[in-house]
């Protein structure tokens, strides 16, 4: 609800439960997606993402809970009455129809007059940059072009809300990245609400206004990409949204801004807590691989370790190392180029990081 007392426009899920027999696949999910937002449902296979999307679309009815659009209940309303746009990984184009005819199909079903159909199809094809291919059959198009046709068919009837279930999953990496940018630009231009399902962390981070991370039928955490990446609320979110190095230890000293943590085996270092801690607390925290610095000479920082490079992998824009500390613990390290190629397997180096690079995930 806004400050003036009016309900904010958008889609609201309240206490949604969904089961198949005795097996609950959605467990007490509540979520609000404001009008015009790009929200991504992110999680591994089996986490409930697609089931939740099908509940929103109307293909499933929740066992418990309510779904509202602009404060009006839509549970029980059939999919065709919700007027949502649906885009899936499979293009589902009619092979015997031209690009124009495929895009026009939703309007013909709605008995729109021919003049309006022609204008709306031209507009939709222009949005996806395919006007020049309107006479071709799907088999004469590339995979990326076919996905653009499927998107135009969704956009042609101007839905206020688009549901996209892994729509780029069948495309190669380069084309996928290009279409991610195009979808984001299109979202800004249309001002429609996008609810996007993916298991690809980079895709979610690069495209979304907000991300809802799902695990075992529940939403673990919701927030802006930067918030989730920099301040994950759980070990699951930290591990699933990017790579992380996890540590456990006991707080042995508190300062004004930092805390000293004992990791055992005589190893201690400083963290800058992002939550309230007390001495003797057991804590678990993480350091992202890109926050770890590497060098040959011993650094002056307190959070420093001597280690051996187990494996080194070059990725063009970065190098990723698996390093082993004394005692056998391994850490992931990522360096940006141009410094990324100076170390190789078997090298011994020093690593270090700043106290503010440690994020406390939970008190144990």
Largest sheet: 6 strands, mixed
Q: Kindly identify the CATH topology of the largest domain.
A: Rossmann fold
CATH class of the largest domain: Alpha Beta
Give the quaternary arrangement of the chains: single chain
Q: State the share of residues found in helices, binned by percent.
A: 10-25%
Per CATH, the superfamily of the largest domain is P-loop containing nucleotide triphosphate hydrolases
Walk across the major sheet and give the strand order. 6-7-8-3-9-10
The fraction of residues in strands falls at 35-45%
Distance between the termini: 36 Å
The low-pLDDT segments are: none
What would you call the shape? elongated
The count of domains is 2
Integer average pLDDT: 90
What is the count of helical runs?
A: 9
Overview of the molecule:
Strand 12 and strand 13 form a beta hairpin. By secondary structure, this protein is α+β, with helices and mostly antiparallel strands. The radius of gyration is 25 Å and the shape is elongated. The protein contains nine helices and 20 strands. A six-stranded mixed sheet has the order 6-7-8-3-9-10, with helices on both faces. Strands 13-12-11-14-20 form a five-stranded antiparallel sheet, with no helix packed on it. 32% of the residues are buried. It folds into two domains: 231 residues, P-loop containing nucleotide triphosphate hydrolases (Rossmann fold); 119 residues, Nucleic acid-binding proteins (OB fold (Dihydrolipoamide Acetyltransferase, E2P), Beta Barrel).
């Amino acid at each position: 609800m806004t400050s003036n007392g009016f309900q904010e426009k958008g889609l609201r899920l309240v206490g949604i439960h969904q089961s198949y027999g005795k097996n609950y696949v959605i467990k007490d999910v509540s979520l609000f997606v404001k009008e015009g937002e790009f929200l991504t449902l992110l999680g591994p296979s089996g986490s409930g993402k697609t089931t939740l999307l099908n509940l929103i679309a109307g293909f499933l009815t929740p066992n418990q809970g309510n779904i509202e659009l602009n404060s009006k209940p839509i549970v029980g309303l059939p999919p065709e009455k919700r007027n949502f746009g649906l885009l899936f990984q499979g293009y589902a184009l009619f092979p015997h129809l031209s690009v124009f005819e495929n895009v026009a199909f939703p309007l013909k079903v709605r008995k729109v007059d021919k003049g309006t159909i022609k204008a709306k199809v031209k507009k939709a094809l222009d949005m996806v940059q395919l006007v020049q291919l309107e006479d071709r059959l799907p088999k004469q198009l590339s995979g990326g072009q076919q996905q653009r046709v499927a998107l135009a068919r969704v956009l042609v009837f101007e839905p206020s809300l688009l549901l996209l279930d892994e729509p780029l999953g069948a495309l190669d990496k380069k084309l996928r990245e290009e279409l991610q940018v195009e979808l984001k630009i299109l979202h800004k231009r249309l001002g429609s609400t996008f609810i996007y399902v993916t298991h690809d962390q980079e895709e979610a981070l690069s495209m979304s206004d907000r991300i809802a991370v799902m695990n075992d039928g529940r939403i673990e955490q919701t927030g802006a990409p930067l918030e989730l990446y920099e301040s994950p609320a759980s070990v699951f979110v930290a591990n699933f949204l990017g790579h992380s190095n996890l540590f456990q230890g006991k707080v042995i000293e508190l300062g004004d801004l930092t805390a000293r943590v004992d990791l055992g085996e005589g190893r201690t270092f400083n963290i800058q807590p992002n939550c309230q801690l007390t001495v003797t607390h057991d804590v678990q925290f993480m350091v992202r691989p890109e926050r770890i610095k590497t060098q040959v000479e011993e650094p002056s920082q307190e959070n420093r370790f001597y280690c051996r490079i187990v494996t080194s992998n070059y990725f063009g824009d970065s190098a990723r190392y698996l390093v082993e500390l004394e005692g056998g613990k391994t850490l992931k390290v990522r360096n940006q180029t141009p410094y990324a190629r100076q170390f190789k397997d078997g090298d011994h180096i020093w690593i270090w990081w700043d106290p503010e690079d440690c994020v406390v995930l939970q008190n144990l």
